[in-house]
Amino acid sequence: MINMNQFLLELHQKYGPLNEGQTANYIPELASVKTNQFGIAIVTCDGQIYSVGQTNTDFTLQSVSKPFVYAMALQEFGREFMRSHVGVEPSGEAFNSIVELEKRTHRPYNPMINSGAIAVSSFIKDKNGISREQRVLNLFSQYTNREHVIDDKVFYSEKETAHRNRSIAHLLRHFNVIGDDIDESLDLYFKQCSVLVNTIDLAFMAATLANNGIQPLTQKKVLDKEFIPDVLSLMFTCGMYDSAGEWAYTVGLPAKSGVSGGLLAVVPGKMGIATYSPLIDSHGHSVRGVKAITDLVRMYKLSIFNRAQ
Ligand code: DON
Questions:
Q1: What pLDDT digit, counting tens, does each position of 94-144 carry?
Q2: What count of other Cβ atoms lies within 10 Å of the Cβ of residue 196?
Q3: What is the 154 CA–ligand 1 centroid distance (Å)?
Q4: What's the pLDDT tens digit per position in 167-199?
Q5: Given this model, what pLDDT does residue 308 score?
Q6: For the packed helices 132-144 and 199-210, what is the interaxial angle rounded to 10 degrees?
Q7: Atom 12 of ligand 1 has which residue's CA nearest to it?
Q8: Catalytic residue among 259, 287, 290, 297
Q9: Residue 25 phi, psi (nearest 5)
Q10: Residue 112's Cα: distance from chain center in Å?
Q11: Which ligand 1 atom sits nearest the alpha carbon of residue 165?
């Protein structure tokens, strides 16, 4: 079997020149990022790091934050509370869809789409004298073993233009999924989306989930083992939104994408895989990232349905 570093280099050379897709220009600040950036990183459960390309370049987490903040809320409030507010069904709709809130239960279908994630963010409050914003930053530091900050430009850029997310939040309030602190909830959501990370950080985040909630380097518990199946099953069925079925069929791993171009996938018990490249497809996934992870999974038989051993 070809050496992992060599294969990552081949993938970088193969997909680096691909110029399909566009930047997430509905957030004005994201429209102008350099589109040639491309990084791939792998962190194994025993802490080995493989990387190629721009894996130290910072970008904002965007929707990659969703499963992690959901996991934090799950740990704090428990399954019953979370399930009574946010469902666990794939919506089959785009990440920013509002239509399902009018249907059936008037609850967000799942925590990976914006409606579910905004509801989840509304449950995170200041605690023990630590602001909700700082709690979220601390959360990501536990996964990555380094300090994080919020990109204020991206935060304000999204906040000022987020008319659709505002409508979603007001509908959530109308159906009593969230409370009266609508603006504070949206602010936390925009802030978690604006946390700066790099591709190595994403790989550590994925590797911690792969390693039953234990961060591979610090060996500290970031998430209770009992909640790992909740988070991974939701990433598997809903993490890739309206192409989750296609992703499950072709790749077969729990994953989460973000519109700034980050993408991570979890190989349970083995490793976390992450990519960064800002050109995204119509579903909001990095074009180069999807292709690179698809090839990687095929080469090393990493799908949860088709393991090498
Ligand atoms: O709410 C939004 O539109 C963004 N802050 C996040 C969306 C996102 O990353 C969708 N995923 N690919």
A1: 999 999 999 889 999 999 999 999 999 999 999 999 999 999 999 999 999
A2: 17
A3: 12
A4: 999 999 999 999 999 999 999 999 999 999 999
A5: 54
A6: 80
A7: 258
A8: 259
A9: -75, -5
A10: 8
A11: 1
> Can you read off the two tokens belonging to residue 207?
């590797």
Task: Name the residue with tokens 């505002």.
Answer: 166
- Residue 298 alpha carbon to ligand 1 centre in Å: 28
Question: What residue ranges in 104-251 does DSSP mark as E strands?
Answer: 196-197
Is 84 one of the annotated active-site residues of the chain? no
Percent of the chain with pLDDT over 90: 97
Known catalytic residue: 241? yes
Distances (CA, A) of 32 to 28, 29, 36, 82, 282: 8, 6, 12, 37, 18
Give the per-residue pLDDT at 103: 87
Of 30, 95, 264, 281, the residue with max ligand 1 atoms within 8 A of its CB, to mutate for a pocket test, comes to 95
> Is 300 part of the annotated catalytic residue set?
no
**Which residues surround ligand 1 with Cβ inside 6 Å?**
62-63, 95-96, 114, 158, 165, 193, 257-259, 284
Domains of the chain, with CATH numbers?
4-62+196-308 (3.40.710.10), 65-193 (3.40.710.10)
> Amino acid letter at 264?
L
Which residue has 């390309």 as its token pair? 53
